[in-house]
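Sample A.
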Amino acid sequence: MPDEFWSLTMREFRLMQSGHMKMEADKRIHEWNIARTLGVFTLSPHMKKGKKLKPKDLISLPIDDKQIKTDSVEERRKKAALALKKREYLKSKKKIDG
C-alpha cells in the first residue's frame, strides 16, 4: 500500500480523496435516514388516526430538496477500471521511453 501511495500523481490522490469524502458523506446521510425512519416508526402509534408522519417531516436533510443524479456503482467501477488501465499504460510507456 505505501508503494502505491508514493507512486500516485497529485490528480490521482485528489480523486481518491474526493471519492473517500463522498463515500463518508453518503454514509452519514444514510445513517440519518435510518434514524429519522426509526423515529417515524416510534411516533406512528401515537399519532391521531388518519394522520401520517413522513421521515421528511420529522427531520429535514439537505438531500431531500435536491434531485441528485448519481452514477451507478457499475458505472463508477467502469470509470475506475478505465483510469487504472490508463495509469498502467502511461507507466509502461514511461518505462519504455525512459
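Sample B.
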Amino acid sequence: MTKFRKCATTSNPSARLFGLPVRLYSPAMAKVCHVCKKGPAFGNSRSHSMVATRRRFDPNLQRVRIDDNGTPRRVYVCTRCLKAGKVAKAR
C-alpha cells in the first residue's frame, strides 16, 4: 500500500512535470500526547503456543481544541490528561 497518491491537478508544477508523488493526506496520525508526551509502547503479542510477535500499544488520544495563549488550535491529548483537567478547552 502506498502512502501517497499521484495527482495530475496539483499546485506544484515540478511535481506534475516529473511525476513525483503528491501528498494528499497525512500518512499517519500523531501518536504523542501534546501535554505529557506519552507515546506508543511496544511489546509482544502471545499466541496460545506462546509464539511472540511484536505489537504496539497506542495511547488513547483524542483530537481536541485547546486554548493556546489565546489562540484555539487542534492537538492530540490523551484521555488521562483530559480527565485530570491539564488542558483548557477552547470555546
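B remarks: The longest helix spans residues 13-18. DSSP finds two helices and four strands in the chain.
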